[in-house]
Amino acid sequence: MSVNAVRPNTFIRFLVTSLLGLSGAASCQDNPYAQHLDWLGRQVFQNECRSRPACLTSWNTGEDFPSLGIGHFIWYGAGQQEIFEETFPQLLLFLKQRQVVMPKWLQNSTEPDNPWPNRAAFNAAQHDEQMRELRTFLLATASLQAEFIISRFSHTEEKIVFSFPPADRSKARRILQGLAAEHPPLGQYALIDYLHFKGSGLNSAERYNDMGWGLKQVIAEMLGAEVSLQQFVQAGTAVLDRRISNSPVERKESRWRAGWRKRLQSYLPPIT
Predict the structure, then answer these.
(1) Most exposed of 31, 46, 233, 255 (fewest Cβ within 10 Å)?
(2) Is the pLDDT at 219 greater than 70, yes or no?
(3) Peptide bond into 66 cis (omega under 30)
(4) What is the pLDDT of residues 52-61, one digit of tens each?
(5) Residue 17, CB half-sphere, CA atoms under 13 Å: how many?
């Protein structure tokens, strides 16, 4: 069955169940869904790390936590409270459920905490055995990290729809379905990547001036617009510009504007 043969309103769910049900015997060469998974993983890795293995263990300037793996999953220390959703422990749980063997120092707890107290300590440890082992582990599980990113969308799509007022739910669902059908696989990639990139928008803690910046907010911007990837990119740009305007001055989020816009542009089909 070709990608285009799948109905728009079921493509994401079909893609998720197909990908997550792949057997180890299927290779990218003979399985189109494995090809999609591989492509998505490479796109996310390029977006987050410019495909550099050293970037699998990063702690960005101005942030209070490391970002790990192909998707730069956030990891907090013991007792740390931040407004952003912590995703690295969720990834570890997903990998354990897939029976992946963890580095020994990550096996001692169901929800291990980031062991580095600050960015300076983290950077000083870049060549330590523990950090090298972590990078090797993250590189070896890249395709499973892509599966995790896809599975998050599968679990969140309907939650986003039902977070809208009843009168807008059918519109929100139609937008999500329409985007999923746009220029396969770019439409699916745009939805899955934005959710991973900036979250669902459902967490009330992820707000500046009571305004969010997740996938829900992008869909809300599109309620009165045509359904297209161009409109999605325009709506995402507006939402992220608003986030920057509302952000605390000390975070200096305007430095990320160009990179965020470049990522959004990757959702568009090439100009022919």
Answers:
(1) 255
(2) yes
(3) no
(4) 888 899 998 8
(5) 4
